[in-house]
Amino acid sequence: MTAPSASTASNPVPIRTTLIDITNCIGCRACQVACKQWNEREGEETELLPQLGFQNPATLSSKTYTLISFHEMENPRSPGGLDSAFVMRRCFHCLEPGCVSACPTTALSRQADGPVTYEADKCIGCRYCMLACPWDVPTAEWDKLAPKIDKCTHCADRADQPLPIAFNGKPMAADAGKRFLETIATPACVKACPADALRYGSRDEMLALAHQRIADRPGKYVDHVYGEKELGGTSVVYLSAVPFEKLGFPTFGEKPYPKFTAAALGAVPPAVMAIGALLGATYAFFRKRVQAVADGSGRVDTSDRGHHMAFERLDERLLTPFNWVLLILMAFCGLSMVARFARGLGGSTHLSDTYPWGLWIAFDLIWIAVAAGAFAMAGTIYVFQRKDLYGLGRKAVLMGLLSYSFVTVTLVADLGLPWHFYQLGLQSPDHSAMFEVSWCVGLYVTILALEFLPVVLERYGLHRLQELWQRWSGAYVAFAVTLFIFMMSRNLVYAAVTAVIFGTLAWLFRARDKGFEPILLAIAAVTLSTMHQSSLGSLYLLMPNMLASPWWSPVMPIWFFLSSIVAGSALVVLMEMWIAKGWRRPLDMTALASVGKITFWSLLVYLAFRLGDMALRGQLGGALSGAMGLAFAAEIGIGGLVPLVILSRPSFRNRPETLLWGALLAVTGIVYNRMNVVLFAMTFRGRMPWVAPRSYAPSVFEWGVSLGLIAATIFLFGLGARLVPILPKREAR
């Protein structure tokens, strides 16, 4: 008899567990049929694949929750020189499930007694669970217009049936309850098994039975109960006569993957409070120093008016040949969006159970990274009082606002059930990175809108509204950040402390004269961006089994944030150069060289942190070997070290040609990094039992939406430049 595991010992409710003895399975597939009948799943077209023998279908799917896989292994001592094994494939029902940790709306949840169940009414169709499951179990209904997630529920609906108190009007016999649990309340697969390959009971009982069988017949079994300790333990455990690796079972350690995201997301509330307070103190320090220097006597000059820069609108016609091309791409984007919802996600994309995420997710992660120039410039201009860069700020904020707005549009297209978005406001997952990103990005869009609002108010002379903006923007920041912390933690103490910190900052930096600066908006922009840029990395903490080691790290949220500053600041340089060339504007090389310096230092910190982390984890030595070695070398070398050298010297940064190449290579390196993380460095094995992975190439509609939204961003940026003053006046130069 083995001692109860820690996870079961602390659980007052016995965990329902199925023991699968592979040595007893005769491959009759009664369990497979019973599962399909109980869950009312449609049949699948029979395919005879020579490499799979009698196995059918090839993998788990939305129509098949349970599958018997066939295996033949060479053994000269066996009749015919082969041994056969039949393995039941289904959900493991982890004690700490990755799919539940990933789900942003608690559509997937683990019951106290073990089963991991699904509620379609809560699901937004993000399919994060499909990638977060280390066993590759959840599947999507790709043939439906509203694709839901499907998986085994351990027949929780059968086990939850109330115990009857009478049969045929007569009181229930003493042993009738036991018979009921053994027959009706037992999972359909267990009840159907004729060969004693499946046993069902509490986890302690099943583990004790498994170890007893190993002890009684040590020559029959390998001394390993698969699922007892893997990833923290599971509610489905296996016995086998051959090593589990030969049957295709993955080898995992004992640490559950949700521990990684729990640590990262648990740091969010204290990080927000600390960053907010630190940025407020930093602003006060630099503001006082700048005012003292401007006064010339060391005394603080409270009449400081800041930058005094004048802006103008672009005075050029809108419908140029280039903009006509953008309009055509935008029109195709609109048609692609119509096709997306008319044909469904499966009918309009090439996504599958093998590739549940594709171009649109890569597109979002790249776009959010390069749009980081908005928060980088806001923090630099206001927190660090670099008013010499103020001429770049309005354009960076407008580009950030447009970019984040269209990222949201892409997410709507990518979600299978986007009309359930309101569930993000009703549910409270424990530590879902997707939940954090959703709330943080949504609130950050409102911050960007408020940052840009004064430009519109100035253009149309709405001075009364501008006064209201000055008076209440700080209060909104305090409310928004407090709401964010409460939604992340559901902790009233954390929320109260956050409200005190940001409320105090709003009061200290309130509008008291015409020299008002939107410092609270800048602090909120930096704080929220730090959180969601890093949490994009947290999304992949649940996938160390899929993401190649040069890219996966327990601290990847930090280098995701650091790399976003590189991409954002470098894109500001590229954008300014594009504006100067396309609109025949003067190029302020002094300001651009300063931004190039920011790119240099952020790139240096990013590379040092990432390579240092790899060295500490012993991953640096083998990073250049293997199938992805060349990709890693290109990303770090061409996209990292080369631009670092180019941007290291002031003489290089002050020359437009070399600054252009340095910024372009830096952006390309971060873009390539995101592509590697999302697609190229990932191992997509398909659904369990990993024998029929599909390939992926984006459909024409996926390209249409992606390219059309980029075109819309460029077009609307040009339209905005013509409607409101975002360009420094030429004479101001």
Structure characterization notes:
Strand 8 and strand 9 (170-171) form a beta hairpin. The chain contains 25 helices and 13 strands. It has 733 residues and is mainly α. It has a three-stranded mixed beta sheet. Strands 2-3 form a two-stranded antiparallel ribbon. It has helices spanning 6-9, 30-38, 98-102, 128-132, 156-159, 176-183, 188-192, 203-216, 258-266, 268-295, 321-348, 359-370, 373-383, 390-414, 423-426, 433-459, 463-489, 492-508, 519-538, 556-582, 589-616, 629-646, 650-653, 656-680, 700-723, and strands spanning 16-21, 67-74, 82-89, 108-110, 116-118, 139-140, 149-150, 166-167, 170-171, 198-202, 236-239, 311-312, 727-728. Helix 21 (589-616) packs parallel to helix 24. The longest helix is centred in the middle third of the chain and has 28 residues, at 268-295. The N and C termini lie far apart (83 Å).
Write the layout of secondary structure elements.
Layout: H1 6-9, E1 16-21, H2 30-38, E2 67-74, E3 82-89, H3 98-102, E4 108-110, E5 116-118, H4 128-132, E6 139-140, E7 149-150, H5 156-159, E8 166-167, E9 170-171, H6 176-183, H7 188-192, E10 198-202, H8 203-216, E11 236-239, H9 258-266, H10 268-295, E12 311-312, H11 321-348, H12 359-370, H13 373-383, H14 390-414, H15 423-426, H16 433-459, H17 463-489, H18 492-508, H19 519-538, H20 556-582, H21 589-616, H22 629-646, H23 650-653, H24 656-680, H25 700-723, E13 727-728
Parallel strand pairs: 1-11
Antiparallel strand pairs: 1-10, 2-3, 4-5, 6-7, 8-9, 12-13
